[in-house]
Amino acid sequence: MRTINNINNEQYLGKQLVDNLFNHKGVFVLPAKTLLTGDHIRLISQHRIMLQPQDVVQVDSATFYQIAVDDCTAAMESIFEQLRYNKSKRLPMIELRNEVIPFIQQVSEKNDFFGILAALQPKDDYTYRHNVAVGILSTLLGKWLKLKPEELGMLTIAATLHDIGKIMIPSEILTKAGPLDEEEMALMRKHTTYGYELIRDTVGTNHQQALVALQHHERMDGSGYPFGVLGHRITDFSKIVAVTDIFHAMTSERFYRPAAPLYEVLRQMEDNAFGKLDPYICSVFINKLMQSMLGNDVELTDGRVGKIILILAHDPLRPLVNIEEDFIDLSRHRDLGIVRVIPQ
Q1: Full-model pTM
Q2: Exposure b/e, 216-244, CB count within 10 A at least 16 = b
């Protein structure tokens, strides 16, 4: 390792130190075998150390995803709390760009949808982890839609901040164990306008990003909120975030309800693709998601586990599954569905 004035160690997030780490004055910094989190990366940089490839070893993908997502989630919690108690209500964009966005981009570079999704499952931090999840999933979807790099960068920030207006909502409403009443729901829905105002008034953001906070609950048929606008008035970024927001919310375990089975989530999204969600964006998301299942083991609704070996063009949500000596065509077995994908 060596010291340098312009230090960039983010590429080593999720990797493991080979030996004990000391700075150039011989001061002990970190022990050998440490799995590097964002906090570790910042500590190393503060000691003016630039890591070299031989200083670390690669860990398995699941560990990398978990470290990166956990660290981003902790950073988002810090950002939320700063805003909650900061009278100026200005987003800490430097912290967001340095501690969250690079790691979201790193995770989204991996072509392992369900491995990533496993790391995105909330623990007791849904409010914060959901923002990270929508940031990652929207970045993946933006790549599948072939957005230009500068558009993708703007989308990542907008998606990660889509729910920032919830800092203005009382915590007892955010964490209520059960359905919200009419008055509580009206207040909850204000997070869209609060988020719009927060992003709009922050230097380093643009109006398109602010509109994502405002419009991610709007729907193509005008049934959404806060204004019930029709699809032609909803921005493309907002349509992308609407799809990933719904998907992560429905596939997440919450303290008041279990996660919905994967087949049920995808079926509902497909049904909504011609009415509530943008049909092209939704179909790209579903098709790419299904293609990423090829070769993965899945659990079916009858409890059996098999491997997906073919995505059927005429019915992509119901693939061909190999279970021991049998081949199950889910398009012909309408009583069966995929509960979950088992990450490789």
Answers
A1: 0.88
A2: bbbbbeeebbeeebebeebbbbbbbbbbb
